[in-house]
C-alpha cells in the first residue's frame, strides 16, 4: 500500500511541475519584446533583418537551441541571448512569434 501512495505522490509532483513550467501568454510576449530591437515589434523586421512573425514554431525552437548549444558558427549576438533563456522560455517565445501575422 505504501508503494501505491508513493507512486501517486510522484505522479502529482510531476504534473504540478509541468503546470508550473508553462509560461502564460503575457510573459511570452514580454520575453519576445527583447527581440524587437533586431527583429522588429511583434517579429516584423525592417528590410535586411530576419522577420520572425508567422515563422514555424518548431523551426524557431530548433534555431534557438542551435544557438544555445553553439551548433552554429558564432556570427551574431544570438549565441549569448539564447543561453539566457530556459527551454520553456524558448518554446514560449517561438510560440508567440509563430502566432503573429506576417
Q: Explain this structure to me?
A:
By secondary structure, the chain is mainly α. It has one domain: Cytochrome Bc1 Complex, Chain D, domain 2, CATH 1.10.760. Helix content is 63%, strand content 0%. The chain has 6 helices and no strands. Helix 2 packs across helix 6 and helix 4 runs antiparallel to helix 6. The longest helix has 20 residues. The N terminus is likely disordered.
Summarize the structure.
The chain has 102 residues and is mainly α. The protein has helices spanning 2-21, 25-33, 36-39, 57-68, 78-83, 87-99.
The CATH architecture name reads: Orthogonal Bundle
Which regions are unreliable across 5 or more consecutive residues at pLDDT < 50?
Answer: 1-20
Mean pLDDT: 82
| Rg of Cα set | 17 Å
- What's the story with the biggest beta sheet? none
CATH topology: Cytochrome Bc1 Complex, Chain D, domain 2
Q: Number of DSSP helices?
A: 6
CA-to-CA gap between the ends? Answer: 56 Å
Tell me the series of helices and strands, N- to C-terminal. Answer: HHHHHH
Number of domains: 1
Judged by helices, strands and strand pairing, the structural class is: mainly alpha
CATH class: Mainly Alpha
CATH superfamily: Cytochrome c-like domain
Amino acid at each position: 500500500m505504501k508503494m501505491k501512495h508513493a507512486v501517486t505522490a510522484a505522479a502529482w509532483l510531476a504534473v504540478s511541475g509541468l503546470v508550473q513550467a508553462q509560461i502564460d501568454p503575457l510573459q511570452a510576449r514580454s520575453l519576445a519584446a527583447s527581440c524587437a530591437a533586431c527583429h522588429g515589434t511583434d517579429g516584423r523586421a525592417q528590410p535586411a533583418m530576419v522577420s520572425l512573425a508567422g515563422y514555424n514554431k518548431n523551426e524557431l525552437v530548433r534555431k534557438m537551441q542551435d544557438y544555445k548549444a553553439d551548433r552554429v558558427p558564432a556570427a551574431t549576438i544570438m549565441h549569448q541571448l539564447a543561453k539566457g533563456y530556459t527551454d520553456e522560455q524558448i518554446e514560449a517565445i517561438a510560440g508567440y512569434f509563430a502566432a503573429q501575422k506576417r
